[in-house]
Write a structure and sequence with these properties.
Helix content is 42%, strand content 17%. The chain has eight helices and seven strands. The protein has a seven-stranded mixed β-sheet, with helices on both faces. The protein has 224 residues and is an alpha/beta fold. Bound molecules: guanosine-5'-triphosphate (GTP) and magnesium ion.
Length: 224
């Protein structure tokens, strides 16, 4: 399905989850890339059991750089669309299919899957998501429900408009930066509700990073 689309799965130490994710994704998508971010566990070995594209970083470079690697790969292979999905089993394949379907059927450049039911999230994440939503609306005048969702797809032709620079310890900011860039540059964006499973390890952003991200959202609005 969708031969013009590369599904990039970004993985760092996901040996327990990645096989299930790949079993499902490879049933539906012909072109799947795993970017292994120099995992210390058996992620690479697990991914290697599948008929997919596989790229391994020699150093752990953070999620943002894995996304850039996927973008470079997609361009080299001439894909039209690039979808991002987490390797930790938090995203549903049916939601991935829905965002792909939407970008193919409608004239959009970026589709973001947003977590509709925030009840699944812990209090910190729920509050963080709501505050980011409100701040984003205030600054960018567009209702984007989940600016940092990791489940998304875009048309690679908008690469220059959405290119992200968040890196290093800010590696989790890349998704939000893409959203900010896309809105500022008036890309055609849509959003669809998705279901996410809560993670058992909660390794995402902490409160300090959340506050820092808010400042960055302001900075991107004013200075880019
Ligand atoms: N933490 C981390 N994750 C990475 C890295 N490179 C790729 N990833 C992947 O990026 C995806 C999202 O990272 P998570 O740490 O799960 O972030 P999250 O989903 O926002 O947070 P949780 O809800 O706590 O899981 C996962 O599939 C990771 O395996 C990296 O260098 N560090
Ligand atoms: Mg996760």
């Amino acid at each position: 399905m969708y031969n013009d689309t590369l599904v990039a799965i970004l993985a760092y130490n996901e040996q327990k989850k990645i096989s299930n994710v790949l079993t499902e994704v490879t049933k539906k998508f012909a072109n799947v890339l795993v970017v292994d971010n120099n995992s210390e566990d058996q992620t690479l070995e697990e991914a290697n059991k599948f008929k997919i594209f596989l790229v391994k970083h020699s150093y752990n470079l953070g999620k943002s750089e894995s996304m850039k690697t996927a973008l470079e790969f997609a361009k080299i292979k001439n894909f039209k669309f690039l979808a991002f999905m987490d390797a930790d089993g938090q995203h549903k394949i049916s939601d991935l299919i829905n965002i792909c379907k939407k970008i193919h059927e409608e004239n959009h450049q970026l589709i973001i899957g947003y977590r509709e039911n925030l009840k699944n999230l812990n209090l910190k994440k729920r509050l963080g998501t709501i505050i980011l939503q409100k701040l984003f609306f205030f600054l960018y005048q567009k209702k984007v429900y989940d600016i940092q969702s990791g489940l998304r797809i875009f048309d690679i032709s908008i690469e220059n408009m959405i290119y992200w620079y968040s890196t290093g310890i800010n590696h989790y900011f890349a998704d939000a930066e893409i959203t900010c860039n896309a809105v500022r540059n008036k890309c055609k964006i849509d959003q669809i509700p998705i279901e996410t499973f809560s993670s058992e390890k909660y390794k995402g952003m902490n409160i300090i990073q959340g506050l820092y991200l808010m400042l960055m959202i302001l900075y991107w609005r004013i200075f880019k």
